[in-house]
User: Fold this.
Amino acid sequence: MKHNLYIVIVGCGRLGSDLANRLSNVGHSVVVIDRNETTFEDLSPGFSGFRVMGDATQVSILKEAKLKLADVFFATTHEDNVNLMVAQIAQKIFNVPHVLARVFDPKREQVFTKLGVDTICPTSVAAEMFLMAVASRAARGGKQP
Amino acid sequence: MKVIIVGSGKTLYFLCRNFNAKGYEVVIINRNREECVQMARQLSATVVCGDGSDSAILQDAGATEADALLAITPNDQDNLIICQLASLQFRVPRAVALANDPDNTEIFEKLGVSAFSTTQIVGSLIEQSASLEQITNFLSVGQGRVNVTEILLDAGSPVAGKHLKEIDLPENALVAVVIRDNRPIVPRGGQQLLADDRVVLITLPENHGPVLKVFTGER
Assistant:
């Protein structure tokens, strides 16, 4: 990664705050957006970025976070539709070069890949890892007598 | 004509009744089970209980055969995704989203989804009728892109007594009908306008103000 990136993260839950803390620690400029102010308590004391309180589905909030200048955009809220909407706005209207959205529902992931939005589906990732664990166990010969 | 409406509340109820009266087949998608039971009792529509942004639910609602889909939930993100799914996956010819936040109308259009905002429509309606009392009727068609306005010409109107061809109208505006003594006339260039005529104008939102000024004078 380039030394100092401008990164906007929507959603300051477990995933959003963890990403924000780590990226801020390695020297990137981070802005976190969440409509619930108490979620900002999950940011570490070392977090040196900005917090924007508000609903990211309102463009005015995205403008406040200076999305136009962003190099990277992550949508990590708990609502798939919010993530997919803001990711499309970031990519197509604010022309952010790297956009990633978290989508829980694997069915939705397929449709939005078609729309050109890059998504990460924790459900599919976890399922894959469970299956791999089972397969490697089976390869080792299954249950020991 | 088969229409799917995703949403809840009174707007949906009256829309559905309206569509039923026109003989359309209506399918409602709503997440709330209780509300679904209520609506199934009150309306002659098929009610599907579930999340409209889930493609399995859209499939159940018969999205593949639908002629139009309206997403009017209180959440803009849901309305956008529902319409994108409908047109992308089910090829619904017309999918229209309600933008609760008026700023989202433009955003949705840029993302390829037709959108309307009740705030904008009601706001402009009030503005237009409050600023000019002579405007007796006003509606917008073509998803708000075309205004139909009826105005009463008073004796002080700058166009009273003029022939239509003498009136300098801005681009994209038309005098559609002149109503004189309750008799409608579809005018040509030689038609003279008189005080007490009621004139029906077709305008676009961008030239609406200037066109009205031509007929009512300074204001």
User: Anything to note?
Assistant: Chain A has a mean pLDDT of 91.
